[in-house]
Amino acid sequence: MKYLLIENKGEIDVNGLILMGGSTKRDSKTSIGFFGSGNKYAIATLINRGIGFKIFSGENEIVITTKDVTFRDKHFKQIFIDGKETSLTTDMGPLWEEWYAIREWVSNSIDEGGSNIVPNIESVNAKAGCTRIYVEVTGAIEDVINKWDNYFTFDRTDIHFEKNGNKILSNNNQDEDMILFRKGIRCYHAKGTKSLYHYDMTNFQINESRVIEDTWNANLQVTKFYNEITDIQVIQNILKNAYKDDKYENRLNWYYGLGILSQTWKEAIGDHRIVVGDYGGHFQTEQNTHPCYIVSTDLAKRIKGSFPNVVVYGLLDGGEVCVMNKVEQTQRHKFLLTECGKFFSECQYSIDYPIEVVEFINKSEQLGLAKDSTIYVSNKLFNMGKRELAVTIMEENEHLKTNYKDCTRAFQQHWINLFISEKEERFGYFL
Predict the structure, then answer these.
(1) Residue 12 DSSP symbol
(2) What are the helix (H) ranges across 226-319?
């Protein structure tokens, strides 16, 4: 039989295996342990799963046995430690997996100091002044040993960025599954969700099973950490690859989870242009003529809000998504535009910008847009009459002249002033 040895300095107090909730680490900001139930659940889980183990406190083995008991017609295995009856049973921690026991004892060994983890040893020996736990290497435990970096980060060297104990590490998982760690211990595994990196954060909130209890909050912490990163290559990797295959990083709440992006982001973007990924197919020409990063709508909005000079295809200056396709003008289009032009000329109203006919892709109800010193009008306007077409052209013309946005008091006041001025000039009565 081969064993996994978990060792630390100091001899374990047997009460640490008996007193439920008995923890001396609750006030510590550095210790991993917290709840005071881990040792008990670990013992119950391994016994329940038929995995052998031995615990030595110094040179003395702590002998753990069970006895069948009945309570209200239900049968339990009560745990005895060094022959003494406890209130613990093997039914504790019904949702625990085998590796959770390894997690608890590895965490304890690190908290206590002098941690020494040795896999696949064949001899079992006590050692004065130390706590030693030997766990039989069965199928589930062997999997932990073989994929150690997917469970623990203590001795990992593939760290891309670290600050205040928080880390971004390579994703070496063969399936690229998303894994979150807290203080070096795996606390969340999203099987089937691919990610570019693994994340180890000190302040993830966990429940008594030591797993993330609030994934939204955890994702928010990861998002915020990205504004502290100074490694340009990490940011460029997000820009290049997060949108592909809908990675975990693509789903982060980039818009609400961050404020103004850091200078590292600006350097990572460089001379690239940004494409809103959901509408990337409409900007194929731009992608063929300029270096582009395809990103989520949230990230595109955050980039545009942080760096107004960065070109973002699919977003207006205010961050609103707007995608349109140019329509080749027909005889009908040309005739109605000419008719509107005659009206404007007769009224001595100047249209100062070129007019393009488009189909608005993501907003079918939109009739017009003022953008890039151009008036864009919807193809559907040409079935709504000359008056509606003329009104839309005038509105967008005034947007471009004033730079005032829709639905603002400034633009409303501008229209009022325009109307009053026209009346003053017409009737020679000036206010």
Answers:
(1) P
(2) 232-241, 254-257, 263-269, 284-289, 297-306
- Residue 116, number of CB atoms within 10 A of its CB: 13
- Is the pLDDT at 30 greater than 70? The verdict is no
Q: What DSSP line would sit under 93-105, residue for residue? A: -TT--HHHHHHHH
Sign, CA dihedral 257-32-47-66, equals negative
> Other CB atoms closer than 10 Å to residue 46's CB: what's the count?
24
CATH 3.30.2010 at 324-426, yes or no? yes
Q: What's the DSSP call for residue 320?
A: -
Strands 53-57 and 60-62: antiparallel
Nearest of 271, 269, 164 to residue 224 by alpha carbon:
164
| Closest C-alpha to 251, from 218, 273, 227, 283 | 218
Rounded to whole angstroms, how far apart are CA atoms 218 and 215? Answer: 5
pLDDT tens, position by position, 262-278: 999 999 999 999 999 98
- Who contacts 30 (Cβ-Cβ below 8 Å, separation ≥6)? none
Q: Mean pLDDT throughout 309-336?
A: 88
- Token pair, residue 310, equals 């960065």
**Helices H / strands E in the chain, number of each:** 12, 20
- Which neighbouring-strand residues pair with 360? 324
Q: Please tell me the distance from the alpha carbon of residue 164 to that of residue 148, in angstroms, as a whole number.
A: 23
Domains in the chain: boundaries? 3-146, 149-225, 324-426
Report the range of poorest mean pLDDT among 73-82, 95-104, 341-350, 422-431. Answer: 422-431
Is the Cβ–Cβ distance between 95 and 209 less than 8 Å?
Answer: yes
Model-wide pTM > 0.85: no
Across the beta sheet with 273-276, the strand order is: 292-295, 273-276, 312-313
Q: For strand 292-295 and strand 273-276, is the pairing parallel, antiparallel, or unpaired?
A: parallel
Identify each DSSP E strand in 27-142 by its residue range.
Answer: 53-57, 60-62, 64-71, 74-81, 84-89, 116-121, 130-136
Q: Answer yes or no: are the C-beta atoms of 431 and 420 closer than 8 Å.
A: yes
Cβ–Cβ < 8 Å for 126, 138: no
